[in-house]
Known about the structure:
This protein has helices spanning 2-23, 181-187, and strands at 27-31, 35-36, 53-62, 72-76, 82-84, 87-93, 111-119, 125-133, 136-137, 139-140, 149-153, 158-161, 197-200, 209-211, 226-229, 247-249. By secondary structure, the protein is mainly β. It has two domains: 26-153, Immunoglobulins (Immunoglobulin-like); 156-254. Strands 2, 4, 5, 8, 9 and 11 form a six-stranded mixed β-sheet that branches. A five-stranded mixed β-sheet has the order 6-7-3-1-10, with no helix packed on it. The protein is globular.
Amino acid sequence: xxxxxxxFFAIAVLFIRVNLAAVLLPALNFSDIVSGPKTxxxxxxxxxxxxEHGSIVTIWGNYLxxxxxxxxxxxxDSSGMSHEVAHIYYWKNADGKLPGGPAELSAYHRMQExxxxxxxxxxxxxxxxxxxxxxxxxxxxxTGSSDSLxxxxxxxxxxxxxxxxxxxVGDGSWNNSWASLEATVAGGNGKIGAGDIIYxxxxxxxxxxxxxxxxxxxxxxxxxxxxxAYPGTxxxxxxxxxxxxxxxYYYSNS
Length: 254
């Protein structure tokens, strides 16, 4: 009887240790965007040229560490090759404070948040993002698979909205940016098309956004049009003067 009890205890302890190890694996839960271009980022972050990096992606996960330390983040492309991400803007607890986004996912969900840019060396097509934390590869927090987070590299342009920019003579690049969210989404300044990403560098909208009001703007299921906050900034959009809407779509495919 004592032998059986000891054996049961040993098996129980082993089971608990195995499951605890599985629970503590670094996990990536979700990202803000799921596809985008691999080049065309003109922000110069990390000293990189537009031909060297593209879409800025933010991901959230668990057991990634409060800071990067020696951990690495990778993109495995459609050919099966792994590439270290081009630039990491921040790696921190998802506490709702700058330079991260406003969602507080740290206190109760114990999540971390990482913003980075896609490397130009990766092949186009579907791939996935994964982290290696203290030598351990991350899993997908929802499915438990080793593929971590899916991301598709596709065609598209990257634009910026910054204070001091111009909606009339700006071309949407970092050094010649656009000025307002309202004008950008109303007509795309004649430039926005399917697959494009617009990053607002802390520029807010104080009136409702009328998407496609002056010129039709259309994305597709495979090539979204994205408006996102640039790392280190948070962007608010308030309703129009009559509070009828915050974001209004003139075209169903906008």
